[in-house]
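Hello,

I think I submitted the N6-methyladenosine-5'-monophosphate job twice by accident. Can you confirm which output corresponds to this input? Input:
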Amino acid sequence: MSKKPDLSFCKRLPKIELHAHLTGSIPPSVFQEIYDQRISEDPALIDQLPNPAVLLADEKAGQDINSFFAHFTPLYALLSTISSLQYATRRVLELFAEDGVVYLELRTTPRALPGTTTEESVRAVLDIIRDWNDLRGEEMRVNLLLSVDRSRHSAKDAEDIVDLALHLRDEGYAVVGIDLSGDPNSPTSVNSFRPAFTRAKSSGLGLALHFAELPISSTRSELEELLSWHPDRLGHLCLVADDLRKLILQREIGVELCLTCNVLSGMLPGDEPGFASHHFGWWWAQQGRVSLGTDDAGIFASWNSGEHLVAAQHFDLTTQDLVGLSTRAAASILGGAGDKARLTRILAAYGRDEVASA
Ligand SMILES: CNc1ncnc2c1ncn2[C@@H]1O[C@H](COP(=O)(O)O)[C@@H](O)[C@H]1O
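Support: Only one job matched these inputs. Its output is below.
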């Protein structure tokens, strides 16, 4: 059982992905399919849509944190119809399932497409998720978080997003939480979002917040403000002082770590930042509620199994450790009791089978 994990083990391992942004999870090949389809339906679009063969020709396109946020603008142009958005969503779900993810919390920023309302486009994504859960929910169960973009949304927009999330959840859609993301270089203080996020929390939605991504968004006052919202989970945590780390551990807040994203985008501090010095090592050693997320698998070309392999290689984890990592991740899902019971069942069965075959 306690062997060195290889990629095949990491793919087989029942994995829990809690930090995946929809648009950034779409690989270049899927953008190309969407582009080709749209051009074949309407050749005039050739003058309007960016061609992924050019836009994404450099495999590092968008990876640097300085160009990262602007990279989404042309991608949104390719996803400007309900059918392209739905096709991309379905393909992303298929790719996570092929990678051995058994529980996925996807997140996306509500936005109106030309000729549709914001609500219609969010429903379009949720319809794909509902169909998926109906047909393939035993293989991989999917829930959605709606994202508030700190650089583009106002306090009123955030309230509207919370209203939308509550309204869709109450209709039976798989909406489980609200995410705070977007470009942290924005001059907006996060404090203005407090009423929306605390209302979401008191209405039963989970909160997952991007936390201490860059020096500008790692001030003591911002981090204390975010912690005062009682988040369920925090993402990235690249620059967190020791006392706040301890508080996060004490409060058993889930920690979503995205190794490849942090390394390739240049988000980590230090002279020679790399996988081996990633703060995953600290959270793992402290028995924190850690999960490994991809952030944007389409941009960083690393899926959830790859993140597990990288963690195993750089932090000397065994196969048994990785089963333990899935168990720790399961503790901080925002899904309901049924989702938790299913994961407990899957991980127990997997642990037994691995012992039997060792
Ligand atoms: C370092 N990683 C990150 N930090 C902060 N925000 C991120 C992010 N990666 C993605 N996003 C957020 O997700 C949006 C695209 O997906 P959706 O249109 O929502 O599906 C980006 O515009 C950004 O706001």
